[in-house]
Every structure is written in C-alpha cells, then in structure tokens.
Amino acid sequence: VVDQLLPLLREEAKLLRGVHKEFADIKDELESIQAFLKDADKRAALADGEGVKTWVKQVREVAFRIEDIIDDYLIQVGQKSPDSGCVALVCKIKTMIPRRRIVSEIQDIKSSVREIKERSERYGFQRSLEQGSSNSRGSWNAKWHDPRVAALYIEEGEVVGYEIQRERLIDWLIKGRDERTVVSVVGMGGQGKTTLAKKVFDSKNVIGHFDCRVWITVSQSYNVEGLLR
C-alpha cells in the first residue's frame, strides 16, 4: 500500500508547486487587467464602434473569473490538515482533486486572456481605445498595485495582518443583533476576503455560539435553485 501511495504523494508535491506558480501568474494578470479597467468604460464610450465595448466587456468577465479562482485557491490554502498519520495522508490525497481543478481553470482563463489579446491586435481594439483618451494609463500592460495588498501575506494557510478584522467580525457575529443581519467583507480580488471569512466561519467561538452554520460559494454565474439545494 505504501508503495502505491508514494507516487501519489510525489505527484501531490509537484502539483502543489504548479498551483502556486499558476496562482502567481494569474494574480499578476488580474492586477494588469484591473489597471486597464479603471477607466476603460469611459474611454470605450468615446471610441467608435460596438466592437471595442464588447471587447472591454469580455476583459471584465475574465477579471471576474480570475477573482473567483483566486478565492477558490485561498480557500484550499487555508484548509489545515493533520500533520502526520494515515488521516493526514488521506487529506493530502483528497486535496489533489480541487487543486487539479484550480490548475485546469487557471490554464483555461489564461487561454481566454490570450484569445482576447489576439482579438484586440487583430481588430485594433487597443488602438481605438487609446485614441478615445489621451491618457495612456489604459494600456493593458500597465501595472497597478493596490497598496492594501502589501498588508496581506498568505503562507501555509496563515493570514497575516487581518487578525484585528477577524476578531471584530467574530465579535459582531456573537454579540450582534438578534434579527437577521448581513455582514459584508469587501475588497479587491486576491486580498484574502474568502480566507478571512473562512477563518471566522471555522472559529471555535462561532461554532459554539450558533446551532447550525452553512458555507455557500456564489460565483459570478450561479443558479438560485442550485444554491437553495
């Protein structure tokens, strides 16, 4: 049995390295797209033709997909497993399936990004957009970094820099109002919103306070009936 499991563990280690690399690449791509989209709609309105507007819409949809997969990745990273023993081995094997899905989805997104860029070059969408405004900030290749990203570093599932926010959210949930309340965690994609929410969801204080809990992931495209099930 051990001889059969060793190749799986080696494959899991290789896959983990691949996921981290793919995540870093797609996160950089998201930062570039976010810089591009900051005033793309305004410049698209000044450009001639519906093609440019459709192209900007496609770019934004890709950004939504990237944000979703970043959240999925951070959930996977934030899940702790036992340090040793058979249970830990089973947990490592079980995580291979969602990680494979994440890698596959990222590769599909990167393919979509390449196709969108190729269409831009083929039909001159980028040039048309830049002609709509003298501001060169709209270039897709321009880099823009949100300063808040530096406050969050994720390694082996540990969230650094959000301890105060986590404790505040837990306090709101436990000591909050009796009626139904919505607590929103907002921010740009990749900052760890989902990881922060998961840390609160898995808190011992929260588990002990509520009779029941449920974790539901709602992506950009969802089915209401599926969510209710």
UniProtKB/TrEMBL annotation:
MF terms (GO), sorted A to Z: ADP binding
GO BP, one annotated term: defense response
Keywords noted in UniProt: Nucleotide-binding, Plant defense, Repeat
NB-ARC domain mapped to chain residues: 166-228
Gene3D superfamilies: 1.20.5.4130, P-loop containing nucleotide triphosphate hydrolases
Superkingdom assignment: Eukaryota
Signal sequence range: none
SUPFAM superfamilies named among the record's database cross-references: P-loop containing nucleoside triphosphate hydrolases (SSF52540)
UniProt cross-references to InterPro entries, sorted A to Z: NB-ARC, P-loop_NTPase, RX-like_CC, Rx_N
Segments forming domain Disease resistance N-terminal: 1-84
Protein name in UniProt: NBS-containing resistance-like protein
